[in-house]
Amino acid sequence: MPYDYRPYPYTPPKGLTTPEDPHKVIIVGAGPVGLAMALELANHGTASVILDDNNVVSVGSRAICWSKRSLEIFDRLGIGAKAVEKGVTWKVGRTYHRDTEVFTVDLLPEDGHKMPAFINLQQYYVEEYLIEQALANPLIDLRFKNEVIAIDQTEDTAHVSIRTPDGDYGLRAAYVLACDGARSPVRAMLGLDFEGELFEERFLIADIEMQADYPPDRRFWFAPPFHPGQSALLHKQPDNIYRIDLQLGWDADPEAEKKPEKVRPRIARLVGHDDFRLDWVSIYTFQCRRLARFVHGRTIFVGDSAHLVSPFGARGGNAGLQDVDNLGWKLAAVLQGRAAPSLLDTYETERSFATDENIRHSSQSTRFITPAEGVETAFRNAVLSLAAKAPFARKLVNSGRLSTPCTYPLNGPDDARLPAASAPGRVAPDAPQGKGWLIDRLGREMQLLAVGDVDDPDVGLPVLRPKMNDHIRARYLGDMAAATYLIRPDQVVAARWAGQPDPGTITSTITTILEGRA
Amino acid sequence: MTLITEPNLPDPDGFYARLLAAHKGLSPDQSQALNAELILILCNHIGDPAVIEAALALARK
Question: ipTM, 2 decimals?
Answer without folding.
Answer: 0.96
